[in-house]
Structure formats: C-alpha cells, structure tokens
Amino acid sequence: RCGEGDVLVFLPTERDIREVSHRAAGHYKRLGLASRVDTLPLYARLPQSEQQRIFHPTGDKRRIVFATNVAESSLTVPGIRYVVDSGTARISRYSARSKVQRLPIEPVSRASADQRAGRCGRVAPGVCVRLYDQADYESRDAFTTPEIRRTNLASVILQTKTLKLGDIESFPFLDPPRPEAVREGLRTLREIGAIDREERLTEIGRTLGRMPVDPRVGRIIIAANQFGVLPEVLVIAAAIEIQDPRERPPDKRQAADEVHKQFQDGRSDFLSYLKLWRFYQARREDVSRSKLDRVCRTHFLSAQRMREWADVYRQLKEMTAQQFGNNRKRITIGDARFDEDIEKVIPEDRYATIHQAILTGTLSGVALAGDKNEYTGAGGLKLFLWPGSGVFAAKPKWIVAGELVETTKQYARTVAAIQPQWIEQLAEHLVKHNYNDPHWSSKSGAAFCYENVSLFGLPIVNRRRIPLAPIDPSTARELLIEHGLVENELTTTSKAILHNRNLAHLISELAAKTRSREFVVDPYDVR
What we know:
Layout: E1 6-10, H1 14-30, E2 37-42, H2 48-52, E3 62-67, E4 80-85, E5 88-90, E6 93-95, E7 100-102, E8 105-107, H3 110-117, E9 127-130, H4 134-139, H5 154-162, H6 179-191, H7 203-209, H8 215-227, H9 230-241, H10 253-260, H11 269-286, H12 289-298, H13 303-324, H14 351-361, E10 366-369, E11 374-376, E12 382-385, E13 398-406, E14 410-417, H15 420-426, E15 432-441, E16 446-455, E17 458-467, H16 473-486, H17 495-514, H18 523-526
Parallel strand pairs: 1-3, 1-4, 2-3, 4-9, 7-13, 12-14
Antiparallel strand pairs: 5-8, 6-7, 10-11, 10-13, 11-12, 13-14, 15-16, 16-17
C-alpha cells in the first residue's frame, strides 16, 4: 500500500526461512498473486546459483527476500524498500566450559536492529516493521557482543606469546575477553602441546606461531609431517578451513544425499573429504572449467567452494614446504591422476597414522559411545552423531570429532572411528593415571597393581596390570618381604634366602617335635 519496492524479511535460521517462505508462497497463490510476487530465500549455505537470483531482479515481480543476518551487513540486496525484522538471529558463541561452538537464537542488539532498518531506503524513503515493541528494543544491549568475547582465544594467545607482547590479561584490548575464555584458550594450547605447564611456548608452539592457520589445524599438520602422512592430511586440513562444499537444496535433499553417498566413508568423515577431493581432481584434469562446473552442479557441489578448497590446499602445501623444508614434488596427492573407482584410492593401510595425526589437534573431541545413541565427551559432555555423518550407521565405540556444535542438541560433526590405545600415546601430557589394588603375584614373583588411565574423565584404560615397583617402591618392598620372603612365595636361587628358609624349616620341625613354645617363630620377627 505504500508504493513499489522489494521486501527484505530477517529470520533467525534456515528452517524458519524455508517454513515462512513456503507459507507466504502458498498465501499469495490462494490470493491469485503468485504471478506478481517472487519469494526468495537467502542464507550462507544457499547454493551460489540461488544466491545470484537475489542480485538480478527481473523488474516485473515484487520480490520478498527471506534472509538470515547474512543480509544485515555482509550482502547488500538491491531494490529493498521495506524491511520486516523478527528481532532475532543465530549468534555463534564458544562455550569455554563444554568446548562446544554454540549457535543459540538470541535477540539482536539495538545496533543490529538499526543496521537492519538501514537495509531499506538506501536510494529512496523506506519502511521498517519490527515484530517487537519499543520497550523491548530499548531494553536490548546497545551493541552485539564483540567476537573476541565469544570465540576460542587460543589463536590470539598464541600470537601474543609468539610476538612477546606479555600476558594476555594485561594486554590493552578495546574489549577485554572474559577470564574464563582466557583460561580455556590456555587449556587449548596446553592440549596441543603449544605451551608447557608454566605457560611458556614449546618448540611446537613456536612452529604453530609461524603458521597462518588455526592452532589445532596447524598441530595436525605438524603431526602429519612427523607420521609421514602429510599429502593426505593437507587435503583434510584444507577442507576443515573452508565451508563444506557439499550442497543440500531444500527441494532436492534426497537426491543430494544419494549422490553424496559415493563420497562417504563408513569409518571416517575425514576420509570422505579425501574421496571427494580425489573425485574432483580426476574430473578437473579431464574437462574444461565450464564442464567441471556442470559436474559440480550434477553432484550437488559448490564449484566456488571446491576452487576455494584447491586454493587453500595450494597455500598449505607452500607453507609446509617453507616450514618443514619438504620438496614440493613429494606432495603430489592433488596433482596425480586417479582411478575411476573411488574406493581404491583410499589409503586403508594408512588409516591409523592419518587419524593419529588428526587426534593430536582434536583430543578434546574424543567421545565414548553410551546408551541410546548418545556419546560421552570431555568432562561428561553428552553428544550425538551428526545425522549426515557417514559414520552415523556404524556408531563406533570410540570416535574423534573435528567439530562440536550445539543447535537443537549437542552434535559431533566430522567424526571418525579411533582406537583408545592411540589416545594414551598421543595424550601422554594430558591423561591421568590412577593405581589401585596392590598385590603379590606368586606366579610372576613380583608385586603388581592395576592402572586406570583417563582423558578428560573418559576411561581410556581399565584395570591394566602393571609392576608396582616403579609406581610405589615402598609398598612393593613390603609385599616382597611379606609374601615373597616370609611366606616363601618368591622363587629364587639366592643362597642366603635358601639358607634362611632351610633354617626356618628346621626350627619349625624342632618346635613340632619338642612341643616347646620357645621354638615357635613369630612372622613379625622374620620380617
């Protein structure tokens, strides 16, 4: 009623966008206005071809764009005259307590609300309709919480230490981070071996400080170089650094899932990345760029993100050549031709070493299967496998997750099956040992105890029998004397011990013959 122009509707999630746009389209169809209105979704994971429709208005229809806060400042939608603001958004927040990247739906700040209102009327007068009252608006925070106060600070702390800028607690930030976030950042650096107990940089930390990647990804790359699996892990590390290139259009989800199954690995989502990469590289060598883009579309892959993946891989490849002095020609996984059968190119014999390298940077992502499809993660955190994971059907006992995300539930994403013995070896600086039930073994002729090993509360080893002497020499000595010598349970050829045993036997026989109490030897005196 207020004139021509397009409408921009801000909604918090993709699901809201699909639901509201579907209802709106049905409403206009019932009113006979379907030919005059075009309803368009807009969110970050929308396929590139669909996003481009936003920026090419036809002019003969009024467009109603349903968008997340990606349209608040990241993108400018042309022709917007009206804005409808729901007043909420999904805000990314890192939970220092649970080590989970949370994605709660929250009321936006006044600054964000004003930014949304500014999307209309950029070239002519506009109208903004807020679906909340003035008192609600005025009670909100003035600004959105700065990212430094809602993200993991491991990378920031590592850089301050690398550049020798002093303690992060005293650094003059414009928005000082929360103390618990600083503590969690330090815990992360200790977990990956970047700092020692005194919070000093280790050799690994100094290397990570020179690598322009997330510290966890950098730690994985360092381990991959040590384990000899750098070619495969560089591809996986590059995939972790970008947005997932696989697309699931709302109207073609089942078809996309069927196509993506050929890339899935039943034991590891990390190897699924490797399968996808090798498929793309094989096609990349055989066809032109335009045909490659068509191949990506038919396989529900984002051609732009696949190219971004290749660019990041190339940068990581050059970085490792500088950091580790590797000959670039040795890292050929992205350059060689591959067999058409994707299954044949997965390095089955290298599964253990590839995932051990990944574990070094993701130890807090380890989880143990429990009841009712639940997993228990670090600190007792309850997790569920991401439904789209290739590992979902197998539900292995032990997994490692590359990402922990909280939406409707707390999910483990990008997961792989692992063996608990790998954890003990790689997390030696983090695991806790508990010893109990010291005892003497007549068969072995030594004192033993049982060892329990745990990582972040998860039982890695249960009741492993080990020698007691290195753990508790005093108790081991007492058990040796009491059981091995006094009770004669020690098998030995020592002349002194054999003489004493023979003497004790003679005295015992004498006591029996004479029935005299003076020949009865108290075991305490023997000790």
